[in-house]
Amino acid sequence: APSIINRAFSKEQFWDGRAASLEEQAKGPLTNPVEMGMPSHDAVVKKISAIKGYREWFKRVFGNDVNIDDLAKAIATFERTVVSGGSRMDRFTFGDKSALTEAEKRGFELFEGKARCVQCHNGFNFTDEQYHNIGVGWDTGKVDLGRYTVTKRREHIGAFKTPSLREITTTDPYMHNGSIETLEEVIEFYNRGGVGNPFLDIEMKRPSASLEEMLDALDKIEGLVKLESNEGATLNLTRRDKADLLAFLKALDGKGWKKIEEPESFPK
Amino acid sequence: APSIINRAFSKEQFWDGRAASLEEQAKGPLTNPVEMGMPSHDAVVKKISAIKGYREWFKRVFGNDVNIDDLAKAIATFERTVVSGGSRMDRFTFGDKSALTEAEKRGFELFEGKARCVQCHNGFNFTDEQYHNIGVGWDTGKVDLGRYTVTKRREHIGAFKTPSLREITTTDPYMHNGSIETLEEVIEFYNRGGVGNPFLDIEMKRPSASLEEMLDALDKIEGLVKLESNEGATLNLTRRDKADLLAFLKALDGKGWKKIEEPESFPK
């Protein structure tokens, strides 16, 4: 599942963006068979209602009995408190040039340049909140359709929402399906250009694509421009590049969200 | 897994046709983790070699010790004996007009006409041995790439080999992923036009597509012509149509292959 960190700053939720709010998103995992697996929302309400403490809180906060909409509101409201900021990168951005080490600064240059990370991971939250196909799963014979399931648009086949990179060291495993365990492997994945497929995002290649190639690709498909394979999409990062990039990614970890701790007790 | 019935009459094996012979195919299931799950072909050879009776048979038949190629030859040779023929439909085809009941004859007409089955299930073995996308899985968010994994051709995304319909009553569950339990449900699946997706085969619609639609579709993609959705692909079969079609399908069961019985004993 996508991390909830800084999701307060985004409208579309889930990897495929099928929920328009955190309230809508919060209802999903309750009955998802691979998450909480409850048979229905009614069953969830019944279970929570059986706990006196929760009944009382719902009365005090919402003025009524436990119900699924208020329950989702409560979860979404909590989620909005899970924020990340105050990272060394933030301090660097706001003018403290000593906040990053030399290796981290080189990593930041790679992030914005040769490694092209910033093509999608841009803005204060290191995400464009858009959907991109980077080829995860196309070498396995089984593919998640991703954003296509919502839009039914051909160019969204296998495209998933760009995640924020904040607190990236603590949100493993990576990729929409959790198929990559470490950040080192993620960097290798991008270094070899992702996995080629007919919907591979042009963002994986743009800097080296000629104008002719771009126009040719535009001719083929309306909407986003996609590449048939990952040929030419490799990044040619050196060993030091990879180490610098990793160092930079670690400088995106902040402190705010870490204050969130499990309550000592729950309503009974 | 696809049925082995009458596979002697086909070159490309597996649902995606990735094996060029039954010998090549026979090596697959041994180490497939969801089939026999052996760690390697060496481990298979070692296991079979440990049985004296097999060692003797390999010496007598192949003139050498157990090895993976001869083992595959033996399995493939057995598979070629699993044939189906002599069905009532065969007798009908060869002139015995009383071999089918009236309902079955109506079913045959539907098969070749309104229900369009014959668009892909044609020839003596009721298969064109080609690859088609009928949309299985496109309503679940997860898709098997099928023939695409072999050819890397866009128009083969989600396309699987047309299976023979001989002995169809005994080869359930149906579809490449076994997602449909009964023939009744298979007929319903086709009746609603499969599941729409950008690669849905034009064979799902051809009879009702206008020349203009066909040319338009041809403009869009080189190679096979595909449809964006399953709109207009529904068959409008009546309740009697469905019953007749089912009756016909059952008349494809033969007798030849049923003589194959498990041996009373195996080499020891």
From TrEMBL, chains A, B:
Annotated compartments: Periplasm
Enzyme class: oxidoreductase
GO CC terms of this entry: periplasmic space
Domain Cytochrome c residues, every copy: 102-253
This protein's record includes keyword Membrane: no
A GO MF term: metal ion binding
UniProt keyword terms in alphabetical order: Heme, Iron, Metal-binding, Oxidoreductase, Periplasm, Peroxidase, Signal
Keyword Signal found: yes
InterPro entries, alphabetized: Cyt_c-like_dom, Cyt_c-like_dom_sf, Cytochrome_c_Peroxidase/MauG, Di-haem_cyt_c_peroxidsae, MauG/Cytc_peroxidase
EC number in record: 1.11.1.5
Protein name (record): Cytochrome c551 peroxidase
Gene source species: hydrothermal vent metagenome
UniProt lineage: unclassified sequences, metagenomes, ecological metagenomes
